[in-house]
Design brief:
This protein has helices at 12-24, 42-54, 69-75, 89-97, 113-125, 132-148; strands spanning 2-7, 28-31, 60-65, 83-85, 103-107. It has 151 residues and is α/β, with parallel strands linked by helices. The chain has one domain: Ribose 5-phosphate Isomerase B, Chain: A (3-Layer(aba) Sandwich), CATH 3.40.1400.
């Protein structure tokens, strides 16, 4: 598995920790920025990761900003992206089991590094249950398709 990862300045330090964890787990990560703590606009980074996942260039992504809210909003604008803001283990697990989330969003100013690492591991290792949840995901895909054709 390959994971696209990106953060704004508020998530930069946590992003470094998550990249290290992914390396330890033998998972390749592609870093879409930012590369420091100087202020940047989170949409610029969120767009890059979300496009890669939406276009199926990369299977999954991780986005980090101060609260995770901004990155969640950006990511969920992209067709086929199911980004979930997870600040605890239960939501990380359920985002995969029921929603087949393909982008994990973390709040760099909300979640400590140790909890964030556990969230990432849970999210990576939890499979999608499928079955009845596929019906719901198909309904979401129909919404996306509808708005693709609205002028």
């Amino acid at each position: 598995m390959k994971i696209a990862i990106g953060s704004d300045h508020a998530g930069f330090e946590l992003k470094k920790e998550i990249i290290s964890l992914l390396n330890d787990l033998g998972i390749e990560s592609i870093d879409y920025g930012t590369n420091g703590t100087e202020s940047v606009d989170y949409p610029d980074i969120g767009i890059k990761v979300s496009e890669a996942v939406s276009n199926k260039k990369i299977e999954r992504g991780i986005l980090i900003c101060g609260t995770g809210i901004g990155m969640s909003i950006v990511a969920n604008k992209f067709p086929g992206v199911r980004a979930s803001l997870c600040n605890d283990l239960f939501t990380a697990k359920m985002s995969r089991l029921h929603n087949d989330a393909n982008i994990l969003v973390l709040g760099g100013r909300i979640v400590g590094k140790d909890l964030a690492k556990e969230i990432v591991k849970t999210w990576i290792n939890t499979p999608f249950e499928g079955e009845r949840h596929c019906i719901r995901l198909n309904k979401i895909a129909q919404i996306e398709e509808h708005f693709r054709h609205v002028s």
